[in-house]
């Protein structure tokens, strides 16, 4: 049976931290679906189309990665896509509490769903999309946190907003 995993997140925008998790997890499944979450309650910097475009552009060299979007409940989306492995990245102790609860809850709802955690690579452990957005807003250096394609989109977005 084909092994499909789902890596859900906001990816607002995708960072080198996310890309590291994507590259590493794509190696142990047949297909990795990177699923950007459409959350109407959250104010995003980028639209779902823009977030997907950046994900597609930065993962295009990994053949078994598919980029998609989902709204509503993650476990229903996972069932629909037959992706019984959920991938999450762990950066710090602070991620653990939230991720632990979330994984337990999902397991309780559907015991077929397994959440797999990958530890961040040390060199990316400090990177978060929130940090990148804040830094970019104040014209800080983001080159070591996001690929050039993403940095360009961020700069365009910030300038169009400020105009
Ligand atoms: P963020 O917290 O950066 O806004 P997302 O909601 O898009 O990120 O997170 C999606 C997943 O990616 C989560 O499991 C999160 O822990 C993981 N992740 C985010 N940044 C990193 C990083 N630098 N290293 C490893 N995992 C990460």
From TrEMBL:
Catalyzed reaction equations: (R)-4'-phosphopantetheine + ATP + H(+) = 3'-dephospho-CoA + diphosphate
Compartmental location: Cytoplasm
Name the positions where substrate binds: 10, 42, 74, 88
Write one Gene Ontology MF term: ATP binding
The keyword Cell division is assigned to this record: no
In this chain, the site described as Transition state stabilizer is at 18
The protein's matches in CDD domains, at most eight in alphabetical order, are given as: PPAT (cd02163)
The molecule here is called Phosphopantetheine adenylyltransferase
The encoding gene is coaD
């Amino acid at each position: 049976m084909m092994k499909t995993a789902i890596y859900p997140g906001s990816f607002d925008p995708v960072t080198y931290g996310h890309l590291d998790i994507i590259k590493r997890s794509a190696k142990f499944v047949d297909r990795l679906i990177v699923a950007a979450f459409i959350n109407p309650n959250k104010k995003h910097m980028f639209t779902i189309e823009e977030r997907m475009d950046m994900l597609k552009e930065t993962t295009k060299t990994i053949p078994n990665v598919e980029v998609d979007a989902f709204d509503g409940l993650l476990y229903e989306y996972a069932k629909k896509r037959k992706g019984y492995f959920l991938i999450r990245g762990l950066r710090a102790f602070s991620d653990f509490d939230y991720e632990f609860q979330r994984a337990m809850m999902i397991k309780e709802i559907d015991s077929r769903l397994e959440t797999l955690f990958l530890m961040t690579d040390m060199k990316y452990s400090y990177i978060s999309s929130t940090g990148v957005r804040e830094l970019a807003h104040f014209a800080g250096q983001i080159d070591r946190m996001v690929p050039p394609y993403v940095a360009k989109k961020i700069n365009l977005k910030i300038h169009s907003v400020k105009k």
